Amino acid sequence: MSPEKFVEDTEIVEAIKARTEEIEQRHETQKQQIETLQQEVATLKQQFTEMQEQQLQYEQQLQATLVLHPAPTSNQPQQPPLPPPAVAQAAATQAAPFLTITSEQGRGRGPGRGRGRGRRHERHYRIHGMDFWGILRQVSSDGDIIEL
């Protein structure tokens, strides 16, 4: 065997040893990663089992509550409970509202309406269907509009 061939073979063996060491290091790293992942999976399984137990307990409590308080069987809405007699009598003596007042927005300036078509933020108040604003608006003898 020639000295050049021996040096060549020695270099090849050293390269193979270095490559083998790299592979072994990667193998160890991957083993550690697998162990870590297995621990995480075990932890997640435990948490999942606990969540299932909590869900089961919640459903059992819900069923127990439904047994104690069954839902109404008729399709009709439930009547509210009757007030005590003193409250019912006091409510009966109260009068109905004297006025019903509603408010409507004025027409303002929109398409096709010039500046002289009334006030933009004018409100029309209606009492029992009558225009309260119109009642308060009076025309003087000069033709000017007076608003009270």
Map the helices and strands.
Blueprint: H1 3-68, H2 85-93, E1 101-105, E2 123-127, E3 130-131, H3 132-136, E4 137-139, E5 145-147
Antiparallel strand pairs: 1-2, 2-3, 4-5
State mean pLDDT (0 to 100 scale): 74
- Low-pLDDT regions: none
Number of helices: 3
Give the structural class. Answer: alpha+beta
Q: Mind summarizing the main beta sheet?
A: 3 strands, antiparallel
Strand content: 5-15%
SSE arrangement, N to C? HHEEEHEE
Helix content: 40-55%
Name the shape in a single word. Answer: elongated
Keywords: Coiled coil
Short description:
The protein has three helices and five strands; from the N terminus they run ααβββαββ. The protein has 148 residues and is an alpha+beta fold.
Protein model, in words:
The protein is α+β, with helices and mostly antiparallel strands and 148 residues long. It has two domains: 1-69; 99-107 and 120-148, no CATH class. Helices cover 54% and strands 12% of the residues. It contains three helices and five strands. The chain has helices at 3-68, 85-93, 132-136, and strands at 101-105, 123-127, 130-131, 137-139, 145-147. The chain has a three-stranded antiparallel β-sheet with strand order 1-2-3. The chain has a two-stranded antiparallel sheet with strand order 4-5. Strand 2 and strand 3 (130-131) form a beta hairpin. It starts with a helix and ends with a strand. The model has no long low-confidence stretch (mean pLDDT 74). Residues 87-97 have a biased composition (Low complexity). Keywords: Coiled coil.
